[in-house]
Amino acid sequence: MIQTLDFSYPSSNGIHTVHAREWVPEGAPRGVVQIVHGVAEHIGRYDAPARFLASRGYLVCGEDHLGHGLTAGGKFGYFGPTGGWNLVVRDVRRLRELEGEKHPSLPYVILGHSMGSFLTRTYLIRWPGTVSAAVLSGTGQESAAAVASGKALAGTLCRLKGPDHVSGLVNSLSLGSYNKAFKPNRTPSDWLSRDKAAVDAYLADPLCTFVPTVAMFRDMMEGLQFIADKSNLARMDKSTPVYFLSGDQDPVGSMGAGVRKVEGMFRSAGCRDVTVKLYPGGRHEMFNELNRQEVFDDLLAWIENKLT
C-alpha cells in the first residue's frame, strides 16, 4: 500500500515553514521523483501521477511553494517583498538535499510543471549535476520584450501600490489571457484541460484560483529572464537527460512553438539528451487531461529508460 507522509522544513526566507509531502511505495524505492508545482496550485494536486509512480516503486515528493498551499499561511500569491524567485528555488533545492540525505544512493528525477518548470530550469542552472534526469511539463518562453515589459509593469505597481498588491490588469495580461484561445468559454480555466471534471475540481479547490500579487509576477518575470540567458544556460550539466512534455494546445507553450523554442535553447547550450513529446489536442495540464494514463505511461517509460 502506498503511504502519504506530510512533513515540514524551514523556508530559505527564515520566516515560513515549508509544507512537503512524500508518496512512499511498498518495499525499498527504486528512485526518487521530486515534483515542482505551478502557480496558483499546490503539491496535493499531483496525487494521481504521484500514486502511479509510487505504484511502480518510486518515492515521490514535493513541497508547497511560498505563497501556495499549506506553506502560504493564508497569504496566497506572494513569495516575498524582494528576491522571491531565489527564495522559492532554494526551498526546492532544500527538499532535494533532505531526500538525498535519506536516500543517498538512489537515482533522482526532478519534474517541474508550468511555473514549476521555470523553477526547475533555474535549478538545473544553479545546481548542475545534482539530479539524474529532469522532466519539464507545460513549459514555454515568452519573448524577451514581453518578459521585460511585464517585469516593468509589475515592478512599477510594486513601487506604487506595494509588493502585495493584486492587479486585475497584470493578471488579465498574463494568466488571464490564456483562455482566449478556447472561446466560447465554459469557465475561466478551460485552458487547463479538456476534461471538464478536472477543470471543475481545480475551480472548487480553496487552495487554487487566487490571483498572484504584483511582486510574484515581477519575480516570475525575473525568473524567465534568468533561464533565457545564454550564459546561464551554459552552466547546465550537458549530460543530464531532459524530457519535455506538453499539449500542442497549451497556451503557456504557445501551442507547441514555445516548447520547441526551449528545446532549441537547451540544444544550443550543448544538452545532448533531449526528448520532446507534444500531445495532439492536449491543453496545459497533461497530468489532468483526458489521455492522462497515456501521459503517465510515457513518463514512466522515459524515466526507466534513462535511469537504467
Short summary:
This protein has 308 residues and is α/β, with parallel strands linked by helices. The protein contains ten helices and eight strands.
Give an account of the 3D structure.
- The protein has 308 residues and is an alpha/beta fold.
- The protein has a single domain (3-141, 222-307), classed as Rossmann fold.
- It contains ten helices and eight strands.
- It has helices at 47-55, 84-102, 115-126, 144-161, 168-173, 196-204, 214-228, 230-233, 257-268, 292-307, and strands spanning 3-10, 17-24, 31-36, 58-63, 108-113, 133-137, 242-247, 274-279.
- Strands 1-2-4-3-5-6-7-8 form an eight-stranded mixed β-sheet, sandwiched between helices.
- Strand 5 (108-113), helix 3 and strand 6 form a beta-alpha-beta unit.
- The model has no long low-confidence stretch (mean pLDDT 96).
Overview features:
8 strands, 308 residues, alpha/beta, 10 helices, 17% strand, Rossmann fold, globular
